[in-house]
UniProtKB/TrEMBL annotation:
An MF annotation (GO) of this entry: metal ion binding
Residue ranges of every copy of the Cytochrome c domain listed in the record: 49-140
Organism, as annotated: Paracoccus caeni
Name the record gives this protein: C-type cytochrome, methanol metabolism-related
Keywords for the protein's UniProt record, in alphabetical order: Heme, Iron, Metal-binding, Signal
Cell inner membrane recorded as keyword: no
InterPro entries in the cross-refs: C-typ_cyt_methanol_metab-rel (IPR022411), Cyt_c-like_dom (IPR009056), Cyt_c-like_dom_sf (IPR036909)
Pfam families membership: Cytochrome_CBB3
């Protein structure tokens, strides 16, 4: 019994360290005028002390619910049909996440039946993929609760220009 308690204590300590490490990976370090990036130059969320989310995270909330929640459930929680993307955004490497969305994924066999279509030619997904990823990363890190963010930052002018260029291109 004593060794089981010790193992449980060790597992709890390890889980706490992993959560702290994962939290550090999502910290916003730089802003290019369009979105925030972490220390590895991966898109991430930035939430002010008063709960205001950056524009990209808010945009990701909107785009996720327009394009993704039909299969993956509201707020990235998953469904009986498709996995929870809020978990995928913190578990998968950013580039793997992008590749799956762009190219699709097929995992069909005796123990799995998952088919995700490719969205690489859909500008309503691809022009906002970093935003969707950022929102899901915030959800998977429990930085943003379920539902529409209560407060959002203003849309940066540089963001609007990049959005227009992507949708026209």
């Amino acid at each position: 019994m004593k060794s089981a308690v010790s193992i449980l204590a060790l597992a709890t300590l390890f889980a706490g360290a992993v959560l702290a490490q994962d939290s550090a990976k999502t910290d916003a370090v730089t802003d290019d005028g369009i979105r925030w990036y972490d220390a590895d130059d991966i898109p991430t969320f930035n939430i002010a002390d008063d709960g205001t989310v950056d524009w990209s995270t808010f945009s990701g909330y909107r785009r996720y619910h327009a394009e993704c929640h039909v299969c993956h459930g509201p707020d990235g929680e998953g469904s009986s049909y498709a996995p929870a993307l809020k978990d995928s955004a913190v578990r998968l490497d950013y580039y793997d996440f992008v590749a799956i969305v762009a190219s699709g994924k097929k995992d069909v066999g005796t123990s799995a039946n998952q088919v995700m279509p490719a969205f690489g030619t859909n500008p309503n997904v691809m022009c906002y993929l970093d935003d969707i990823y950022t929102y899901l990363r915030a959800r998977g890190s429990d930085a943003v609760p379920r539902g529409r963010p209560a407060q959002k930052a203003e849309k940066p002018e540089a963001y609007a220009e990049a959005e227009n260029a992507c949708m026209e291109g």
